[in-house]
């Protein structure tokens, strides 16, 4: 009896030590990385991991269209790596170019085990001159429990055959393992990671940790300290096979948040096109697919929204070469080898087609729309969208999009643009003190025209929408000005919640508050008001504070405006007869150098600032773009698409521009444009 108690106590002590070790590690990490309103890194700190091989070109949510440079070869991301089985090449690698890919992945363990004496150069062996990535055999280890090769042997082999990016023999942790088992696997993986880097730096750094987010976070942080080229997320195939998409997305988000943003993230084994848009949106840059071949061997036909057996299909919905020439019936009549090859070609075609669709959606700012369409493919996908409600994604997402925001279900309220608007409203906006606040019900836009009212010195109007209660002066700012929502009666509870939030936050600014629930009553009230002079100064101050933060609006005095003859919207703002700024189509203000200078006097550094390294100042003064590698520090609240003040290290205003990257990306990226300059000193 005593022996069993002693063993239990000993086991609990071991667990406690593990918890304490993790806690101390995380505390140390948080102490190092905890910032309030500023990111600050010197150039030598930014360069600790070596030169970046990744450059962001376009962004939407957490998705990036980028260029990955490896050994003088370029790969556009998000990219799909077809998996090549050395034993059975369903499609010859040299034909992958036809599908638009310059990268593939193959299994180094199979090559080592069965082709060791034949493979001297992996590119020649596969007859493929693009980027060749090799896996280590960890998948076989997960499936079969044992493989007959050591970590050192497989890494040295990949180096010898010339893999562009190899992989060390990590320990995959399946979701059914306990926390202690997952932690032990992770510790072994970390030891092997350090061993592998002594052999070659051209490696993947797989992130393990099972289903446990705390271990995934530790793994991401620890692995990020090592100079790997790409960070794959491993051990996730069982989650996809079991439709556990919410857990999958939570794991990917945890890894993406804790891995440097200048390094691509790879979702190991994610090869079904149905998932590409979701995973790209939460930061995955690389996918690999054996699905195109494995599905073909089982007569399964891939689409962007699911999988069908050939027997289920009367005709093909696709217009690829295979589907145009053949019918399901004719394909079934072919011999097995021919049928598998043709079906694999279709499956690969539809996979790359979906990936092109994802890249286009990122470019056009329509990734949310694509996700919401794909979410209807499976109830578990729709449910898993709740995982997207992360502050991390909101900080990466551009503040404005090219097209209107469409409501297509309650999951639309999770959209990062809406969260960004609310954050800016409650963080930056400060209304002028007035006697009365009147909250009007949601209506046709523009709200001021529908109700025929405007803000005055005594009365301030706001409109209750399902995503925020919007001050009337902000009605022309995205997404207020550019959204299409359904009848708001479906969203009454959400609208009431937004009213309560607004009143709670701003109640100290008003002596009286009146809320109208019915449009008819609100119209009657508005029509009964006597014509009053519009408080244009208060309106412009509200817009400037919302965008740049209080007290930026105090820089405005004796305001005059010029309106568009076509739309009647304010086009230019003058303060004391000097041009302060012009309005973008999405309602955001582009300050002139003079206007920016006046605001800078009121905003404490580093607020709204991007601070340059000395060597970049002469070029930016002449209107050249700001590159990420020359950003010394910046306001941590900057989002892509915002207007920023560009200053030198002495806080001298050098230029004004539009942020292309988020603040964190500016500090972590070593390549690419961080800010496009609009106005400069020279």
Write the layout of secondary structure elements.
Elements: H1 2-33, E1 38-40, H2 43-46, E2 54-60, E3 63-70, E4 73-77, E5 79-84, E6 103-107, H3 108-114, H4 122-126, E7 131-135, H5 138-144, H6 151-160, E8 166-167, H7 179-197, E9 203-204, H8 213-224, E10 231-233, H9 237-241, H10 245-258, E11 265-267, H11 276-281, E12 286-289, H12 291-297, E13 300-303, E14 306-309, H13 321-325, H14 328-332, H15 336-364, H16 367-374, H17 379-384, H18 391-396, E15 405-406, H19 416-428, E16 434-440, H20 447-451, E17 459-464, E18 469-471, E19 483-484, H21 492-506, E20 510-515, H22 519-528, H23 536-548, E21 559-563, E22 570-575, E23 578-583, E24 589-591, H24 593-600, E25 609-612, H25 617-621, E26 626-627, E27 631-635, E28 643-647, E29 653-659, H26 663-668, E30 673-680
Parallel strand pairs: 5-6, 5-12, 6-7, 8-9, 10-11, 11-12, 15-19, 16-17, 16-20, 25-28
Antiparallel strand pairs: 1-27, 2-3, 3-4, 13-14, 17-18, 21-22, 22-23, 23-24, 25-27, 26-30, 28-29, 29-30
Helix pairs in contact: 7-8, 8-10, 12-15, 15-16, 19-23
């Amino acid at each position: 009896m005593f022996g069993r108690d002693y063993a239990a106590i000993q086991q609990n002590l071991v667990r406690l030590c593990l918890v304490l070790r993790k806690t101390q590690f995380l505390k140390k990490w948080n102490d190092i990385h905890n910032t309030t309103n500023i990111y600050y890194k010197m150039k030598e700190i930014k360069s600790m991991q070596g030169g970046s091989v990744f450059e962001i070109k376009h962004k939407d949510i957490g998705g990036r269209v980028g260029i990955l440079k490896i050994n003088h070869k370029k790969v556009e991301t998000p990219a799909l790596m077809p998996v090549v089985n050395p034993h059975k090449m369903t499609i010859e690698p040299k034909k992958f170019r036809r599908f638009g890919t310059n990268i593939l992945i193959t299994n180094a363990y199979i090559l080592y085990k069965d082709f060791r004496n034949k493979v001297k150069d992996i590119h020649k062996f596969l007859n493929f001159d693009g980027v060749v990535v090799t896996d280590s055999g960890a998948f076989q280890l997960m499936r079969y429990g044992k493989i007959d090769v050591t970590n050192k042997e497989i890494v040295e082999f990949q180096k010898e055959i010339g893999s562009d990016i190899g992989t060390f023999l990590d320990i995959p942790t399946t979701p059914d393992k306990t926390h202690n088992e997952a932690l032990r696997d992770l510790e072994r993986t970390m030891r092997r990671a350090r061993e592998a880097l002594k052999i070659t730096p051209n490696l993947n750094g797989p992130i393990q940790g099972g289903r446990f987010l705390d271990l995934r976070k530790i793994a991401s942080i620890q692995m990020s300290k090592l100079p790997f080229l790409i960070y794959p997320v491993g051990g996730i195939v069982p989650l996809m096979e079991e439709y556990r998409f919410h857990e999958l997305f939570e794991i990917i988000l945890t890894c993406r948040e804790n891995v440097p943003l200048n390094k691509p993230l790879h979702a190991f084994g994610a090869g079904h096109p149905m998932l590409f848009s979701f995973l790209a949106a939460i930061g995955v840059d690389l996918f690999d697919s054996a699905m195109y071949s494995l599905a073909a061997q089982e007569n399964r036909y891939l689409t962007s929204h699911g999988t069908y057996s050939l027997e289920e299909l009367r005709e093909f919905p696709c217009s690829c070469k295979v589907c145009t020439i053949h019918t399901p019936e004719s394909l079934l009549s072919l011999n097995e080898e021919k049928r598998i090859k043709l079906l694999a070609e279709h499956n690969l075609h539809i996979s790359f087609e979906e990936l092109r669709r994802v890249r286009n959606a990122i470019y056009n700012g329509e990734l949310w729309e694509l996700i919401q369409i794909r979410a209807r493919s499976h109830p578990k996908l729709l449910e898993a969208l709740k995982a997207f409600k992360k502050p991390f994604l909101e900080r990466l997402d551009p503040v404005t999009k090219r097209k209107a925001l469409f409501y297509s279900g309650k999951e639309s309220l999770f959209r990062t643009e809406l969260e960004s608007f609310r954050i800016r409203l409650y963080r930056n906006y400060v209304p002028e003190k007035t006697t009365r606040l009147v909250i009007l019900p949601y209506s046709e836009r523009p709200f001021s025209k529908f109700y025929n009212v405007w803000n005055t010195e005594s009365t301030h109007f706001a409109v209750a929408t399902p995503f925020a209660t919007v001050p009337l002066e902000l009605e022309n700012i995205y997404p207020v000005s550019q959204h299409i929502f359904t009848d708001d009666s479906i969203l009454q509870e959400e609208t009431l919640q937004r009213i309560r939030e607004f009143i709670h936050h701003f109640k100290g600014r008003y002596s009286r508050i009146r809320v109208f629930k019915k449009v008819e009553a609100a119209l009657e009230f508005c029509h009964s008001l006597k014509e009053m002079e519009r408080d244009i100064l208060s309106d412009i101050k509200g817009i400037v504070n919302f965008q740049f933060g209080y007290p930026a609006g105090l820089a405005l005095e004796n305001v005059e405006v010029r309106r568009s003859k076509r739309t009647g919207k304010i086009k230019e703002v003058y303060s004391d007869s000097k041009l302060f700024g012009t309005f973008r189509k999405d309602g955001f203000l582009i300050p002139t150098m003079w206007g920016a200078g006046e605001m800078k006097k009121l905003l404490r550094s580093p607020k709204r600032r991007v601070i340059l390294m000395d060597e970049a100042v002469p070029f930016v003064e002449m209107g050249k773009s700001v590159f990420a590698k020359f950003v010394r520090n910046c306001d941590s609240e900057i989002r892509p698409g915002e207007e920023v003040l560009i200053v030198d290290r002495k806080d001298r205003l050098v230029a004004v521009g539009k942020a292309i990257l988020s603040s964190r990306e500016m500090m972590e990226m070593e390549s690419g444009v961080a800010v496009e300059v609009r106005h400069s000193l020279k």
